[in-house]
Automatic annotation (TrEMBL):
Keywords: Metal-binding, Zinc, Zinc-finger. Residues 34-72, 107-145 form the RING-type domain. The keyword Zinc-finger applies. It comes from Amblyomma americanum. It comes from the Eukaryota. SMART domains: RING (SM00184). CDD domains: RING-HC (cd16449). GO terms for molecular function: zinc ion binding. This is RING-type domain-containing protein.
Length: 167
C-alpha cells in the first residue's frame, strides 16, 4: 500500500537530513518505507506477506529467531525475504519542499499567508501589502519594532508551490 502522505522521516542518509520530516513533491516508493515504524532507511526487507521492514525493524524481528511479520504474524523463511538498498544518490535526486516555507510566508504584521513576502533585517516577515505601506511612508521602519532598515537590506521572497532541487 502506498503511503498516504508525501512526508517522510529519513535515517542513515546524512546528518543534515536524519530525523527531520521532509515533504517530498512525489511520494517515495512504498518499498522504501518501513511498514512498522514509518521511517525511510538505506536498507529495507520485503517479506513474503509484502510488508516492508527497515533494516532495524527486520533485525529486531529476527533477533529471537521467530521470523514472523510484526504486522500480521505470518511466518517466513529467511530465503524468502527480498532485501533492497536505497542509494543516497537516488534519494538526493528527489525534490522536497523547503523546511522554512510556511514560516517565511506568514506576515508578522497581519498574519496572512502570501506568495510574495519581504524579510526585513530584524527578521520580521511582511506581506506585500504591509511592506508597500511601510515603503510609501518613506520611513523604512519595521512596523513591529520600529527598527530602521535600508532598502538594499530587505530580501524579497516569492514562493511557488515547489522548491527547485539544487543540482
Amino acid at each position: 500500500m502506498a503511503p498516504a502522505s508525501p512526508q517522510f522521516t529519513l535515517v542513515g542518509f546524512s546528518p543534515e537530513l536524519d530525523w527531520r520530516p521532509l515533504t517530498f513533491l512525489k511520494p517515495i516508493p512504498a518499498n522504501r518505507v518501513c511498514s512498522a515504524c514509518g521511517l525511510v532507511r538505506k536498507k529495507t526487507a520485503i517479506l513474503p506477506c509484502m510488508h516492508v521492514l527497515c533494516w532495524c525493524c527486520y533485525e529486531q524481528c529476527a533477533q529471537d529467531g521467530a521470523h514472523e511479520c510484526p504486522l500480521d504474524g505470518s511466518g517466513y523463511e529467511e530465503d524468502d525475504v527480498n532485501m533492497f538498498d536505497f542509494p543516497t544518490d537516488d534519494l538526493l535526486r528527489r525534490e522536497v519542499k523547503c523546511w522554512n516555507e510556511d514560516s517565511n510566508r506568514v506576515c508578522s504584521a497581519c498574519g496572512l499567508v502570501r506568495k510574495r513576502t519581504a524579510l526585513l533585517p530584524c527578521m520580521h516577515v511582511l506581506c506585500e501589502c504591509c511592506y508597500e505601506q511601510c515603503d510609501q511612508d518613506d520611513f523604512n521602519e519595521c512596523p513591529l519594532d520600529g527598527n530602521h532598515y535600508e532598502m538594499h537590506d530587505v530580501t524579497i521572497m516569492v514562493f511557488s508551490d515547489y522548491l527547485l532541487r539544487s543540482e
